[in-house]
Structure formats: C-alpha cells, structure tokens
Amino acid sequence: MKNAWSVTTRREATLPAPAVVALFAYGALASLLEPHAMPITVATSVPIAIVVAIAISRGWHHRRLEDPGRPERAVVASSVALWVVMIATTAGLAYVHYQSQPRDVYPTLSSLASSAFSVPGVRAVAFGFWLWLGWYLLDR
Amino acid sequence: MTVLPADFRINLAIWIAVWATMIVWQVAYATRSDRLASFGDVVGLARRSWALRWGLLVWWGWLGWHIFVQTHF
Predict the structure, then answer these.
(1) 3-state class of A64 per DSSP?
(2) What value of ipTM does the predicted structure carry?
C-alpha cells in the first residue's frame, strides 16, 4: 500500500535461462581476448551498440518512457534513500582513492579489478555479468 | 594529501566493508522484503528520469570499455 513514506516501483523482469547462458558464453569467449587490441574492442563495442540501439528503439530518447505494464509495488522511501547514500559513499570513496597516490597503497576499483581479472575464470564471469547488467538496465 | 590511511590493507578493508554492506543489504534484507527497496528498485526509479537512464547506460558502457579493453591484467 502506498503512503507518504513510500514510493512505487515495478516488479522485476527475469531473463530466460537460455539467454543467460548465451550472455555468459559470449563473456567466456570475449574474456579470452587480450586487452588493448582490436578483437576485444569489437567484442565490447558490439554489445554496447546493441544495447544503445535497443534503448533508442524503446523510446529512451523521449522524455517519458512507456510503461512496460508490469505490476507495481510500494517500497519504503527511506530504504531508497539508504541506497542513494551507499552509492554516493562508493562514488566518493572511488574518487578519493583515484586522487591518492601511490596506487599500491590507495587501490582504485580498476586496480583491484586488474588483479582479480588476471584469473581467466573471474574475467569470464565478470564479462557475462556486465552483459547481463546491460540487459538489466534496459529492462528493469 | 588524502583523508585515507597510508596502509593498503586498511584501504582494502574499507572497500570490502562498503561492498559487503551493499551486498548484505541486498541479499539479506531487500530481496526478502516486499517493502524494502532493492538495488533493482533504485535502478527502476532512476530510469524514470531521461538524464539518469542515459547516465546509467553511459556508465555501463564506460565500465565495460574500461575494464575489458583498457585494463592490463
């Protein structure tokens, strides 16, 4: 039930399992490619171009988005505010670390990621997750 | 000059604490309650604004480009 302390939000859409498998399979193949080279540039650019094309085809360039018709529910407004605080904290922390040197004392998300992604399996999962996130931003 | 401690382990612990807080909140509370906002709810709300939904899309594209194309492993 909606009241002064709540906001309405749509219920989540779910991606079919075969599509999830396809995203992570693409991620696994793309993760085999070396950075700073044409193949990985293409492998990363293609999903970006597809997502932007889908966004435009769904009217993202209009001021008002069409309602996808999924049912709505009311959530407590303070829980939304809590997320805003957590996201702002992360962004602030990222900025302070980025501005600080040396990097081996003040790690950024990128420097931490480059260590973790030296493991091929981690890179494959991360690429698949990034593709899934693109779909999620489009369909949420 | 920085407000952060000059110790890699403490700075790493700060990052872990921040991410763990968000993950625990999402998994243990937000996705188990119909009344608490999940990360997805916040994304859904942000999509209602033209600037925020395109900002999210640009951020997503930059993230993939930065991590997979530009970062050395």
Answers:
(1) coil
(2) 0.86
